[in-house]
Amino acid sequence: MDADGLSRLMRPDGWALLEALPPYDEHEAMRLSAQLTRRGLDPALVAAALTQSRLRAKATAKFGDFAAGMLFTQEGLEQATRLVVAAHHARRYRDAGVRLVADLTTGLGADALAFAGVGLRVLAAELDEATAALATVNLRFFPEVEVRHTDGLTLDLTGVDALYADPARRRRSGGRVFDPAAFSPPLDAVLALRETVPALGIKLGPGLAHSAVPSDAHAQWVSVDGDVVEVGLWFGPLAPEGAGRSALVLSGGSTRTVSTGPQEPARPPVGPVGSYLYEPDGAVIRAGLVSAVVEEVGGRLIDPTIAYVAGDHPVHSDVATGYRVLDTLPFGVKTLRAYLRARGIGILEIKKRGTAVTPEQLRSQLALRGDGSATLILTRVGGAQRILVVERL
Fold it and tell me: Which end of the chain is more exposed for a tag (fewer CB within 10 A), N or C?
């Protein structure tokens, strides 16, 4: 959506149209557009309103009921922090005694909204003029927030207790940016600010290598319902855990944190597949804390390079998905095809880790037929390719 379209939506007639639209339905969008245009409404305004209605519907997954009163851009929505995660960010600042936080890259205002929600004052900077205008709209009910159209790195930090940054990691032409020096603002420039304000938090993509984590940071990988969404780097008073790594697992309303100190966790034991198999949550894997799952289930890795944990007893875990192992097969298409046909299995879930096999290609080679269903895990066990037939606990 261009700046002109957004500007028109923020006028009284544009806002009234947007608020009057029914819940977005992609199958009805074209018909509704034609209907509104026949009534004499400007086609460009109708298109802008329907685009915003679509984005609001998509944003509900991140913002819940708040989405219905907000304005979005596609790019801003993709990078915006989910509200459930932003709430955890905000509690870090509140618990550290912060009163005024400078949000250096406020974007659409998701984190600023959460900061204000726990009673903090927020100085929110946004370099893009149109995005700053949207943030102003989205934060209109929070007098604790001041939105400025400016470069966050140029803010006067007098009286600021803490900083937060979520550097842009997407090109305007599309695609992700992986070089920290090409982030906006560059990662090193943000890190340098902790010399001025030690309480610094930075949100980054979850693919950040452990070697790129500063030695004085607490790095926390976060997953929401199994989807790894970010890694936060926390410094100074915002990291009461001290330097090290942790995983924050948010699932179905429950919260679980797995952590380690500055020392690397001990290497877990390796052994054979047992009666049960556990797949650690992605945040736990990213944080390098699979050993915590091994300890929790009293198990062992099935391979020193694979994040699957074997166990001999069923154990409920908030940070791993459990399976009962029904069979273990050597890898081979003919062997597997015969196994599945003998059991009438025509519906197949295929999971993989540590193998180059493509599930879609394998599925086509198996020529599945039958009403039965099964779950396969393609992986390595003790260095050899194996197929595990499992059922979810």
Answer: C
